[in-house]
Design brief:
- The structure holds two protein chains of two kinds.
- Chain A is mainly α.
- In chain A, about 80% of the residues lie in helices and about 0% in strands.
- In chain A, helix 2 packs antiparallel against helix 12 and helix 13 crosses helix 14.
- Chain B is mainly alpha-helical.
- Chain B starts with a helix and ends in a 14-residue tail after the last helix.
- The chains are: A mainly alpha, B mainly alpha.
Amino acid sequence: MPITSALVQAGPSLDPISDLRQLTAFPFMVTALEAGTIVAVMAGVIGWFMVLRRQTFAGHTLSLMAFPGASGALLIGFSAAAGYFVFSGVAALVIGLAAGTQRAGNRGEESAVTGTVQALGLACGFLFLSLYQGVLANYESLLFGTFLGITGGQLLTLALVAAIALALLAIVGRPLLFASLDEGVARARGVPTRALGLGFLALLGLAVAETAQITGSLLVFALLVAPPATAQLITLRIGPSLLLSAVLGVLVSWLGLALAYFYNYPVGFYITTVAFVMYGGVRLLTARSNRSRPARGRARAAADGA
Amino acid sequence: MFAHEFFRNALLAGTLIALACGLVGYFVVLRAQVFAGDALSHVAFTGALAGAAAGIDTRVGLFAATIAIALLLGGIGERASADDVSIGVVFAWILGLGVFFLALFARGSGGGNGLLGARALFGSIFGLSVGDAQLAGVIAAAIVAGVLMLARPLLFASVDPEVAAARGVPVGLLGLAFLVLVGATAGEATQAVGALLLVGLLAAPAGAAQRLTANPYLALGLSAALALTAMWCGLALSYAIPQLPPSTAVIAVATAIYLLAFALTAARPARAARASRHPSPAPGRELDWDR
């Protein structure tokens, strides 16, 4: 949703203080910045594990489950929250089971199941929408999202979901990290890797779908994948990498929102573009430094393979 | 049912599109590249909107975008199979671009964007004209021919890339060519089932075929046959029940087929699961190259 240009008194100046004052002059922008921060921190941390576990596809699929959830709830007259809980929960369960039963080294079936789940979920959403006679005009905002027009109550929900998700992740963080880095060894040491994998997907699904209800699935997905991937390119030390991921996410969402405020195009476009440029730039830089320092490249390759 | 021209057009385009999806989908699943297929199908959405925003035929934008991104994805990954993180990042950006073109188009046309957006996202196979259907059929037939031509070396390169490379098979080039085929399929099938649902038609029949047989050529054929079944049944169902959109019906049938395949092979897993708990390669369900 583009911001009406009437609200913008002037374009950005080179004075950052006055730019910041302009940005925060309207309550809706303050709410948007707050929401962007909350989502970016949560997505940065959960996404870090998702990228490490190479489950980007599952993450994308789960973030799309907000669409059938919301349109189904609309059709039946249920609360949207119930709809997304059902869809993202079931999707996470099915993908998790498929990931758990396959043999190591063959991800074909897992990805086939994930793709099928995604298509079926979206097909259901489309069916609900057409049964509803297509009056859900904002299906685009559900898919592509915006941080604008978020209410105080939604902000509180976002904060609550983020807090719960991060707390749960803090509890299972250590074994999950172990299981993600070296599943075989972790299992041999008695870590319940399969249950952890399923639990992580469920957590990812619920947190992401709830967030997608408010901000749209595209924005969540962009913040879920690009900042963690960039952070893992820069450093592999766990603490700094996690922190960097959250910080980069916050930067991306602020920059995207500011650009959308000053130049009248959708927020989703700016946030994804900033994220893409950031990842691409870091990747090019690290590729060059790796070539001159092969040892570090090999270290990362080893960690990637784990 | 066949008396209606729109249904005959849909059947013509749908049949060939389903064949292309089934064949390409088999390799997509075999190479664990469903995510790349998914990304390319969403690229189709962006391409269609870019074409609309620029005021040219949406199909030009569709194919140009999917093939360009296929080359990009092939270029950034090692051995022309991009890893899941780079796909994810590129993918998010492409969707963002789609939103941008949607806004651009909406500004130009004054609000007609909802319909175009929905058509690009969810397909409109019953809205094809005779010319559309024939063109779609020709392109799909070309894709089918392309896959069949590449089938043997591609199978080798997918199952065992190291050995294939040692035997002189151009593994990287094949991967790139294959991604371009996936891109073309994505652009093609977007007209039938839409950018968002296409991944189901790629993944479900192929996944089912791989569960049902270990013989690669049999699985390839079975995948195409199952995709065709899903398409025909879906079209007929949607014709019988007007409230059911055709793309939803097709995906629902495809999913049902996959579920059925799971159920049919469920008797076997006692052995397969036992094998998977041990690190030794599982017998029986491995791809058998020599057969």
